[in-house]
Amino acid sequence: LAPAPRRPIRDLPDELISQIAAGEVVERPASAVRELVDNALDAGATQITVRLLAGGVRLIAVEDDGSGIPQDELPVALRRHATSKITNLHDLESVATMGFRGEALAAIASVSEMALLSRTAQQASAFLLDARSGELRPAARSRGTTVEVKELFFSTPARRKFLKTDATELAHCIEAVRRHALARPDVGFAIWHEGKLVEQWRATLTPAATADEGKRQQALQQRLSDVLGEDFIRDSVPVHLRLGAVTVTGRAGLPDAARSRADQQFCYVNGRFVRDKVLTHAARSAYEDVLHGHKQPVYALYVQIDPQRVDVNVHPTKIEVRFRDSREVHQAVRHAVENALAAPRAQALAATAA
Ligand code: ADP
Ligand code: MG
Questions:
Q1: Are 154 and 240 members of one domain?
Q2: Does 343 fall in a domain?
Q3: ipTM for the complex?
Q4: CA-proximal residue: ligand 1, atom 23 (nearest)
Q5: Ligand 1 pocket test: which of 84, 111, 123 has the largest number of ligand atoms within 8 Å of its C-beta?
Q6: Which of 161, 147, 192 is nearest to 32 (CA)?
Q7: In terms of residue numbers, what domain contains 191?
Q8: Distance of alpha carbon 271 from its chain centroid, rounded?
Q9: Taking the model in full, what pTM does it have?
Q10: Whose CA is nearest to atom 7 of ligand 1?
């Protein structure tokens, strides 16, 4: 067989670059939901409403009461690698926002029909930008932003074919919001599907009280109960440990609350939901002596660590992180959960359950 003739090297068109990036960032409607809620939180929203049609495939609209985007910056927000969150390498090394790559809006816009509707506190009216046509015109809304994503993957049928039923995609979208909600009791969340309210979690912490650690913990317990159910609270014990530079809080389920699936294991690093082997291994090893077989413990663990000691720029979706000293984090999490399970109240609860 003759080798294919060599073709010249060319720069890819912008649109195609975004579509390639979208493959990494947007796997399904839930990934878009996650990115848009990230943005709303970064904008300081206190109330976030997610509206979906057909499991998010036909429509995802995320509405917030955050800072808004000024009219002249709306087209910039859609550009690849355009961000308001970092300006240099130093910022990247201690990033405190959910986003920083400036990729999500460009990526989602390249595989959907997107519109941005936004108003800042200084503006007399809101503006609406249609991503495809570039048309920008005055519109009505109060301060904040609504991002509308229609017909996800309409231009990439191969990707669209991989989507599951609307019910499954909806469940993934709800899970994406749930992960955010568990970290932010100071923010109210609502999810609508096909015009019906399917989930609502009210804020139980005023913005003014977020610095009060006692009130924060109280609000967090309330949010855990609202999102995961009263059973989760009843069958778990509070976690609180500070070891060196690492603080671990949250709740750990009693051994009897363990499940066959690992579907109630939530780990956060500086407020970001992560999937991390160090954290799951540390948590699992705390149950070593009390949990046998293949049972999966339930827990929600919040790790606070100096942002300089963790690299969040490991994966395009930022769901993975790398710790500078993973042993220190492993020890902190393991001890935090072990101590919680060994506390007198945990022992008493376990005894009554037995
Ligand atoms: P990143 O979040 O990494 O900066 P995005 O593509 O998600 O990249 O967003 C680009 C920019 O658009 C953000 O940096 C921000 O300035 C602006 N933006 C996006 N969504 C919102 C929102 N809901 N409220 C205010 N600004 C937003
Ligand atoms: Mg973002």
A1: no
A2: yes
A3: 0.99
A4: 40
A5: 84
A6: 147
A7: 14-201
A8: 9
A9: 0.94
A10: 104
Q: Determine whether the shortest distance from the Cβ of 64 to ligand 1 is under 6 A.
A: yes
Residue 188 Cβ contacting ligand 1 at under 6 Å: no
Give the rounded percent of residues in the chain with a pLDDT score beyond 70.
Answer: 99
User: How remote is the CA of residue 175 from the centroid of ligand 2, in Å?
Assistant: 18
Q: Verify that 186 and 141 share a domain, yes or no.
A: yes
Can you give the CATH number for the domain in which 79 is found?
3.30.565.10
Give the model's confidence band at 293: pLDDT under 50 very low, under 70 low, under 90 confident, else very high: confident
pLDDT in tens, 161-182: 899 999 999 999 999 999 999 9
Please check the confidence at residue 1 and state whether its pLDDT lies above 80.
Answer: no
Q: Is there a single domain that holds both residue 240 and residue 341?
A: yes
Residue 208: pLDDT band with limits 50, 70, 90: confident
Token reading at 130:
């249609």
Looking at the CA of 106, name the nearest ligand: 1
**Looking at the structure, do residues 186 and 307 belong to the same domain, yes or no?**
no
Number of domains comprising the chain: 2
Q: From CA 282, how far away is CA 288, in angstroms rounded?
A: 10
